[in-house]
Specification:
Alpha-Beta Plaits; alpha/beta; eight-stranded mixed β-sheet; elongated; four-stranded antiparallel β-sheet
Length: 296
């Protein structure tokens, strides 16, 4: 089986509308991408969940997939009519059947976090059998170790978990930070997420790694104060959750925050300075890690 794929140049202002029109016309999928991706003019776009991004790319392209014998030209023409725009320039290619699972797996290699800590997909052998290897496959829940925010938090855990600490990972996603804390020697560890699917993924990943912790929805968050609270989420929820997160940290305990853009670091540090002695931020590829020590 094969498919037809069209790469369609479009104005960013109408890209989403045009992609929806293609779907209505019968295309199988339509993804909007930065037309300048991979060049010096590539433009990163950031936005908080549930909110529109402040701007779109300067120019966009739509990657649309069609059935092998679909009248692609007619369907693109129908989408232009529906959106009231001129017929855009597009190129075509044939997409052959492939082993998509093997192809996807080939894109993910082990990730080295530190001298002793690796993230290794289950289909790979551990690069260093003597290291601490977290087995974690890319999935639907956020957190595979490749993103700078996750990497920043893992590096902090690697440098600071000495053994026996109690840890709360708020916004646990795949459970990667909670699992890393356990494998590094932490004691009681809990992971909390608003997404039931993330809680399920965390439980499965913990079992895969031979560790156990508490993973739950926010209503079931353990009430005990802990030595370390991790929150690798985003700036907006971190602005709102400061008092609640602080309430879970023992006097002298640590808070570790990420998911924060570099330009947001000063504001977030000032907010958390209400409860914590904040340290200098650490940056990685435009993202920030903030840490602080709980005051009495």
């Amino acid at each position: 089986m094969a498919w037809q794929q069209a790469t369609i140049d479009t104005d960013s202002a109408v890209a989403e509308q045009f992609a929806d029109a293609l779907m209505d016309a019968g295309c199988l999928s339509a993804a909007i991408e930065d037309a300048l991706a991979g060049t010096e003019a590539e433009q990163p776009i950031f936005g908080e969940p549930g909110e529109p991004v402040e701007q779109m790319w300067k120019s966009s392209k739509i990657i649309a997939l069609f059935e092998e014998h679909a009248d692609l030209a007619l369907m693109i023409a129908a989408a232009t009519t529906a959106t009231g725009i001129a017929l855009p320039h597009y190129t075509l290619e044939r997409v052959e059947e492939q082993d998509w699972v093997r192809l996807t797996q080939s894109q993910f290699d082990p990730i080295r976090i530190s001298e002793r800590l690796w993230i290794t997909p289950t289909w790979h052998d551990a690069p260093d059998a003597n290291a601490i290897n977290l087995q974690l496959d890319p999935g639907l829940a956020f957190g595979t170790g490749s993103h700078p925010t996750t990497r920043l938090c893992l590096q902090w855990l690697d440098a600071n978990i000495k053994g026996g600490e109690t840890v709360l990972d708020y916004g646990c996603g795949s459970g990667i930070l909670a699992i890393a804390a356990l494998k590094l020697g932490a004691g009681d560890v809990a992971g909390v997420d608003i997404d039931a699917q993330a809680v399920r993924a965390s439980l499965d990943n913990a079992a895969q790694n031979g560790v156990s912790g508490i993973f739950c929805l926010p209503d079931a968050t353990p009430e005990a104060k802990v030595d370390v609270v991790l929150a690798n989420i985003l700036a907006n929820p971190l602005r709102l959750l400061g008092e609640m997160l602080a309430s879970h940290v023992k006097t002298g305990g640590k808070i570790v925050l990420s998911g924060i853009l570099q330009e947001q670091a000063e504001e977030l540090s000032a907010i958390y300075n209400t409860w914590f002695e904040m340290e200098a931020p650490v940056f990685d590829e435009g993202w920030t890690r903030l840490t602080g020590t709980r005051r009495a």
